[in-house]
Amino acid sequence: MSLIDQKSEQILRELSRNGRITNLDLSEKVGLSPSACLRRVQDLEQMGVIKGYRAVIDPAAIGKSFTAYVGVGLSDHSKASQEAFEASISLAPEVSECHNTTGNIEYLLRVEVSDLTAYKRFHTEVLGTQPQVTSITSYIIMGSPKDDRA
Predict the structure, then answer these.
(1) Which domain holds residue 112?
(2) Sequence-distant (≥ 6) Cβ neighbours of residue 119 within 8 angstroms
(3) What's this model's pTM, rounded to 2 decimal places?
(4) Contacting residues for 41 by C-beta, under 8 A, at least 6 apart
(5) Which of 10, 18, 84, 91 has the smallest set of CB atoms within 10 Å of its CB?
(6) Same domain, yes or no, for 31 and 70?
(7) Is the distance from CB of 98 to CB of 54 less than 8 angstroms?
(8) Nearest-angstrom CA–CA distance, 150 and 146
(9) What DSSP line would sit under the chain, residue for residue?
(10) Longest Cα pair distance anywhere in the chain, in angstroms?
């Protein structure tokens, strides 16, 4: 399989909705025989299109009901500065996502903690102690009417 066709796109859509779906149920939903469906899923895995399967965890259920997206600006754009920031942020359990971006900031972080007090601690003791960081802009999530992340 060299290109992703319509059937493979259907398979990917269904798997992104429910990664635990049985091959039999998946094959019925996409209109393929079970053997053809399994072959396509295996091909998608081997091609690296499907990188893995995981559980989607409700942050509030594990005491992380406060979410913020945080824009982080660095003092310089050097590779060393970026690598140092990435190394330190990879150790922060509060950060569930870290994205290197273009524009006015270098990084966009998704931070999940228990409450505002915990966020203030992260802001001050983690981000505030990084020598490369020159700006921090917080966007507090009040609700998520659509969130398709798996």
Answers:
(1) 59-140
(2) 66, 68, 111, 113, 138
(3) 0.82
(4) 11, 15, 23, 26, 50
(5) 91
(6) no
(7) no
(8) 12
(9) --S--HHHHHHHHHHHH-TT--HHHHHHHHT--HHHHHHHHHHHHHTTSS--------GGGGT--EEEEEEEEES---HHHHHHHHHHHHT-TTEEEEEE-SSS-SEEEEEEESSHHHHHHIIIIIGGG-TTEEEEEEEE----S-----
(10) 57
Q: How many distinct structural domains can be found in the chain?
A: 2
Sheet containing strand 107-113, strands side by side: 95-100, 107-113, 66-74, 133-140
85-139 pLDDT, tens digit each: 999 999 999 999 999 999 999 999 999 999 999 999 999 999 999 999 999 999 9
> Residue 149 has which token pair?
């992340």
Q: Does 34 share its domain with 74?
A: no
